[in-house]
Amino acid sequence: MEKLVFDKPKCMTERPLHYCPGCSHGIVHRIVGELIDEMDLRDKTVGVAPVGCGVFAYWYFDFDFSQAPHGRAPAVATGIKRPNPDLFVFTYQGDGDLAAIGTAEIIHAANRSEDITVIFINNAIYGMTGGQMAPTTLVGQKTTTSPYGRDPETMGKPIRVCEMLSTLEGTTYAERVHVGDPKGVIATKKALKKAFEVQVNKKGFSIVEILSTCPTNWGMTAVDSLGWMKDNMIPYFPLGVYKDKTKEGDA
After folding, report:
1. Rounded Cα–Cα distance for residues 133 and 149 (Å)
2. What is the mean pLDDT of the chain?
3. CA of 120: how far to CAs of 49, 71, 117, 203, in Å?
4. Is 6 within a domain?
5. Is residue 148 part of a domain?
6. Collapsing DSSP states into helix, strand and coil, what is residue 139?
7. Is residue 242 part of a domain?
8. Burial of 220 (0-12, 13-18, 19+ CB in 10 A)
9. β-sheet with 64-67: strand ranges across
10. Count of domains in the chain?
């Protein structure tokens, strides 16, 4: 007799993913789908995806989704959540979207403690639009707009989003994780579940930053990209919980 050990989340569609081989978006999508099912949130969930590699996220999830202009997902999510406080609303954003064109939106949504959950995919580069330098691109990292490597004297240093948002009073929960190995995937699911619970319990703004790979724009194989992320991204973007007001008792 066969034993079922793996199954697709019920809230995900049958459509094949469009992401490049080795891209981490598919892993994160599955984690999100598992949690939506396990927490019985499907019938009241609304996802918001702006411009970026995740722009077609609505193809893969069988619940309501809204698109937003580039960088404006927190504003759109706010507009959905405020008149519908019992909905579960999350944004799914990349680093170019959230930390560049959407900097104002993410900062002010956090500062107002909007009761939304932000899933932030940090792969240190613009993925969909051609591999340009992003706010999270590492010093020395080569991109199409920094062909000689990021120069901190003229281009500044990479922005650490979790550290920045954790300084705001409105942020309830902020954690950075990665999906580079099974241990990291387990930690990512735990962090996302915590962030989802913050919203379910109406405790305000939460964000989970997920370090991810982009083999295509990094110019690497999928296997090499995992090693590069661990050797280069994690030292600059340390993993861990940066803020958890639920433990402080003042959320």
Report:
1. 9
2. 95
3. 11, 12, 10, 19
4. no
5. yes
6. strand
7. yes
8. middle
9. 64-67, 45-49, 88-94, 117-122, 205-211, 171-178, 240-244
10. 1
Does the residue 8 lie in any domain? no
Output the domain CATH number for residue 232: 3.40.50.970
Asked whether 29 and 216 are in contact (CB, 8 A), the reply is: no
Q: Has this prediction a pTM greater than 0.90?
A: yes
**Residues 6 or more apart in contact with residue 182 via CB below 8 angstroms:** none
C-alpha angle with apex 41: 39 to 45, nearest 5 degrees?
145
Dig out the tokens for 233 from the structure: 């991204």
pLDDT for 172-194, tens place per residue?
999 999 999 999 999 999 999 99
Strand-pair partners of 175? 208, 241
Radius of gyration in angstroms for the set of CA atoms belonging to the chain, rounded to a whole number: 17
Contact 213, 22 (CB under 8 A): yes
Query: 121 lies in which domain range?
Result: 25-248
Helix, strand or coil, per DSSP, at residue 106: helix
**Token pair recorded at residue 97:** 């979207």
